[in-house]
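Task: fold both queries, return tokens.
Query 1:
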Amino acid sequence: MNDVDEGEDRLSLLMVRVRRLREIEAGNPSFKRLEKVARALSEEDSSRGIWLRPLPKSTVCDLINGKSKKLPDWLLLRTVVDVCHLIATKSGIPIDPLEDLTREFAVLWREAKEDEGVRASAAKHGRKPPEAFARDEQQIGGDVLEPAPGERSSWKPSATTQRVPLDWGRLGNLRLKRAESGDANAAYELAVLLACEACSKGDSDKEKREARHWRFLAAYWNGRAIGVIAAAAEFQLQGRQLVKAARALAREYAEAGKPSSAYFCRAMRQAEASLQAQPAAVPDNEASEPAPVPGTTVLWSSARAVRT
């Protein structure tokens, strides 16, 4: 996945969502397969009055890999959504209903289109584009994920278009950038944190969608760590194994005296709370193990001190 500037605009968020649709929700089909399925689907749907368009490998590759900086037309985006949904369905991969996906991408596309209009107007009248203001904010100590004291962001994306939760601040932004640059440790840590974040969500439809979003991303990042980080092979999106993974990271950072251990402690508590709410709870001897306190030295059972 390509890096996105910290002053993210809505086009960047749309492209992140497109990549997640293909790489995670549709099972990462090849560009050749996307082209082939689009051709067949276009022929089938044209008889029903539904317009789709061809997906040449070069076009869809440039779109998904972020090589094109222009907003794709709606028909192209709609075709990508339809094709990915069909591939996931035929492959037996659980995916949201096509109607819901189409509605979600339509909202993201319209928001990106609005940004495009704002940038064009700014250029015409010699004003700064929106992303330039975001860069200016970073230079005085704030950014989109963590404003400087007294700042308030004028716009925040919905949870299901974010790559990390906004309240993670610089911790999330830093780990995301490291993971995207190929750091397997950062990818694994991101997977654990995101899976724990999903565990904290409630039962409303909105929170269920957010939980699915974070679990999709957690699975993706753990996949980037497999083969490099031994613990990634045992990673699970929820349950007792997730609690153990979060606890191991919390312990590691607490023993190193790093302030970021607080985030891993919180993640551990999120996973524990979710597990204890289920019929099969964590045994008392594990569930009651204290969370490490940032900046303190904690003695741990040697049986649990080995991180695999």
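Query 1 returned. Query 2:
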Amino acid sequence: MTPATSPTTPTPTCNTWPSRPDSIDQGRPVIFYCRAGIRSGMAAEAFRAAGWDAYNLRGGLLAWGDAVTNSDQAKC
């Protein structure tokens, strides 16, 4: 599970961000994602409760991949 970052920003992982929440800029929105959206949902909820503008990629990368695949098929 990782918060989305810009290409120039190192991507923290679920092993590093709990011990270093200050490494994530609280002045910018943060999007958490993981495989299925469960862990990232918990992270986004915790960060929102602590004052961050945090979001979860609902359904995770699995749902995103399905949406992209279905979108591509609709264009054919």
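Both queries returned. Flag for query 2: Residues 2-75 form a domain with the Oxidized Rhodanese; domain 1 fold (CATH 3.40.250).
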